Amino acid sequence: MSPREIPGVLLVGSPSTSVRGIANHTGRPLPGSVLVVEALGPELYDTIVRSAAVVCSGGGRTGHMESLCRSRGIPVLRIPHAELVGLVGEVTVRTDRESVTLGESEVSVNSVEYPTVTPDDLRSVCVVIADATDIQSTNAIQPRVDQVTSFFIREEFVCLSSGLSPLDALRAGIPEAERYGAAIGAELCAIVDQLVPGQRLVMRLLDLRSDDAAQITNDVDVDHESNPELGLHGARWLLHEPNYPHAFRALRAHVREHLGPDFDRLNFAVPFINDQDEFLRLRERLELPDDVPLSVFVETPAAVHSVTEFCEAGASEIFMGTKDLTQFYLAADRGNHRVASSYQTRHPAVMSGLRQSVEAGRRAGVPVHVFALGADVGYYFKHLPTDRFMMCTAELRQLALEAHESR
Question: Where is the signal peptide (predicted)?
Answer without folding.
Answer: none
